[in-house]
Amino acid sequence: MNRKARVWWIAGVAVVVIVIVGLVVVSTRSKAPRRVAVVQPTPTPVPTAVPAETGIPAGVTLSTSDQFVRQVVAGLSSRPALVEWLANKDLIRRFVAAVALVARGESPVSQFSFLRPRNEFRVRRTGGHFIASPSSFRRYDMVAEVFTSLDTEGTVKALNRLEPLIDEAYAQISRPGRQFRDTLRKAIVVLLATPVVPGDVPLKVKVLTYMYVDPRLEKLSPAQRLLLRMGPENERRIQSKLRDFALALGFPPESLPSPVMYHAPAKRRHSKR
After folding, report:
1. Cβ distance 96 to 13 under 8 Å?
2. Which of 10, 46, 95, 105 satisfies CB 3.0 to 4.6 Å to 221 for a cystine?
3. Mean pLDDT across 44-57
4. Residue 196 parent element (H or E)
5. Which helix (H) or strand (E) holds 34?
6. pLDDT in tens, 20-33
7. What is the pLDDT of residue 61?
8. With the C-alpha atoms ordered 134, 135, 137, 142, is the resulting torsion angle positive or negative?
9. Could you tell me if 117 and 139 are in contact, meaning their C-beta atoms sit under 8 angstroms apart?
């Protein structure tokens, strides 16, 4: 792999990691949701960033890499939430598995269930339908804040050091000959192809969750619906940042999906007889 391609996919990892973290916190529980136990991680001191070196230190393996990952990633964002998220275990394996799921259009919640929001998904009733309450979107503002605050150059250097661990983790779950950078590219495309819904969209009850009345939205992949339900402003910010990273790192503009704006179906007029 030439150096330019190498830098592109490594930095792309950094972009998608926060997007995926954002996706997994989305919950569409009804007013009487099933209670989910939230595991509070043990408070962890803010790690000191390691010097800008290359390679994995002797003695650090994939199974023992969490502390090393925390040290390498320290300082990429000033948002305390990043440090809190990094207090969890098996970071590399979780991340790689989540990217693979998103690339297939699947939900990555299974890898990051500890980030489910504590507040329930709220709706308002209007015109015979339910619509999402603005407070439901605001639960994910911090995810967008952390994502957009990432230092690009520092992220490239940090993920460059983690490349051997990422490759090792991906080799454990992929078919022989598959490359993680190809899976990463697919995940980016999936997220960029998600339409932005600028206004209120009708929902209807589906057992303990809500589903979109418009079948075009309901037919989106689970990964895309998760991003969609973060709200239009957060989705725009995440997609804009994702696109900026891809373009700055040499991802061909023509290979990126064009921004998609959702338009509600026209109301049918009943003819008078």
Report:
1. no
2. 105
3. 57
4. none
5. none
6. 444 443 333 333 33
7. 96
8. positive
9. yes
Q: Which long-range contacts (CB under 8 A, 24 or more apart) does 213-221 make?
A: 213/129, 214/264, 214/265, 216/265, 217/262, 220/194, 220/195, 221/105, 221/106, 221/190
User: Are 56 and 181 within 8 A, CB to CB?
Assistant: no
The CA distance from 226 to 109, in Å, is: 9
Q: Are 136 and 30 in contact (CB under 8 A)?
A: no
**Nearest-angstrom CA–CA distance, 39 and 243:** 33
Nearest-angstrom CA–CA distance, 19 and 146: 9
Among 2-16, 34-48, 102-116, 241-255, the least confident range: 34-48
Q: Which residues lie closer than 8 Å to 201 by C-beta, 6 or more apart?
A: 131, 132, 212, 213, 214, 217, 262, 264
Beta carbons of 262 and 197 less than 8 angstroms apart: yes
Please state the domain extents for the chain: 3-119+140-197+223-250
Within 13 A of 238's CA, how many CA atoms are on the CB side?
36
User: Distance between CA atoms of 120 and 134, rounded to whole angstroms?
Assistant: 12
Burial of residue 17 (CB within 10 Å: 0-12, 13-18, 19+) is buried
Q: Taking each helix axis from N to C terminus, what angle separates 66-73 and 152-173, rounded to the nearest 10 degrees?
A: 160
DSSP class per residue in 7-26? HHHHHHHHHHHHHHHHHHT-
Nearest partner of 223 among 128, 144, 112, judged by Cα: 112
